[in-house]
Amino acid sequence: MTTKYEQIPSSLFVKNRKKFAESLLPKSLAVFNSNDIYPISADSTMPFQQHRDIFYLSGVDQEESILVIFPDAYLEENREILFLRETNEHIAVWEGEKLDKDQAFETSGIKTVYWLSDFDKVFKTLMYEAENVYLNKNEHYRSSVETEIREDRFIKKVKADFPMHNYKRSNPILQRLRSIKEPEELALIQNACNITEKGIRRLLSFIKPNVWEYEIEAELIHEFVRNRSKGFAYTPIIASGNNANVLHYIANNMQCKDGDVILLDVGAEYGNYSSDLTRTIPVNGRYSDRQKEVYNSVLRCKVEAEQRLVAGNNWYRFHKEMGEVYTAELLQLGLIDKADVQNEDPKWPAYKKFMMHGTSHHMGLDTHDYGILTDDFVENMVFTNEPGFYIPAEGFGVRIEDDYVIQASGTPFNLMANIPITVEEIEDLMNS
């Protein structure tokens, strides 16, 4: 089975499974399911997106797959097993090639591969040998899921069929493991960032007064897909004028007016890994004095945040410190005054009127990636850095965002260091 992205070495997934297996209690078995394919209507479906956990542990990027990890299984061949949908000539003609058993081994490094039709029989044998069963549920702090997914249905079934086992949670283990990236993962994220750079450079020569937001979106998707990306890592935000003050503006259907700035929060995916960029650029190629003043203020906040995205800091402390930075800059811009600060509600400080979201989140296989917020920052965690000031009364907002890798010591490595960011760079490229 060929993917749009270049094949990821199976050694990455072997390493990931080893780390996961080492975190399990003795005599434990863990199960991971692919995502469903979601129907739209008639015979239409949404494009398949693999469940990031089974992908992280196996590299398998197709539907109806199951991974079982059982480190203490008596027979060595039962310690890692993949179950795949059986392929045949008819499926190959109608849907395209699926993984066969040899390709599954090449992709994942897992030697024991069965067809899905054998799952119940094989699984029953393994369950009689196991004491603990690790099941997987989405426990991300931002998750809000109303859909019953394949994993949920499996949890119900296994607990009904085997009520006497001791059930455990896989997700806390994965939250910790996935938050610290392997070198191969950093290379994939860097590639996603490089594709995003190509898109942004294309836009700087394309954007002019009266262009429509959706035309900008079309330029980006063209550039992303021609560089082996499936497209956007998340729904793109292309917000001109006052639209920038709607944090999750995704309509992208307005015309961009001379004198406005456009907030672009866009990023390419590559091999299921995300990038996440924001730039705020002038429609006519020149910032007004006030736009430039706010832009440079936000850029100073971003530089201050870099100094704090360091090993040993943590998410809560980092955000508290950034609140002080925003307060100082907003005082300088005249958007708040000393009385606002003195009388502020500690639960909703004065700066929150103009900067109401977090400065950073974990990034990786998910744009808002796994990570335990109470853990200290450690080497090879990846974070966004995205300060912004939103000023509806003045008809514009500014956000600037790059992606960073925490270093063992000192300031983080900027994966987007090559993407134009200063007022001068952006104006020069737009007017060249």
TrEMBL record:
Q: Which reaction does it catalyse?
A: Release of any N-terminal amino acid, including proline, that is linked to proline, even from a dipeptide or tripeptide
Tell me the superkingdom of the source.
Bacteria
Q: Which InterPro entries match?
A: Aminopep_P_N, Creatin/AminoP/Spt16_N, Creatinase/aminopeptidase-like, Pept_M24, X-Pro_dipept-like
**What GO biological process terms does the UniProt entry carry, in alphabetical order?**
proteolysis
What are the names of the required cofactors?
Mn(2+)
Instruction: Give the record's keywords alphabetically.
Output: Aminopeptidase, Hydrolase, Manganese, Metal-binding, Protease
**SUPFAM superfamilies attached to this UniProt entry:** Creatinase/aminopeptidase, Creatinase/prolidase N-terminal domain
Q: Is RNA-binding found in the keyword set?
A: no
> What's the protein name?
Xaa-Pro aminopeptidase
Task: State the organism of origin.
Answer: Epilithonimonas lactis
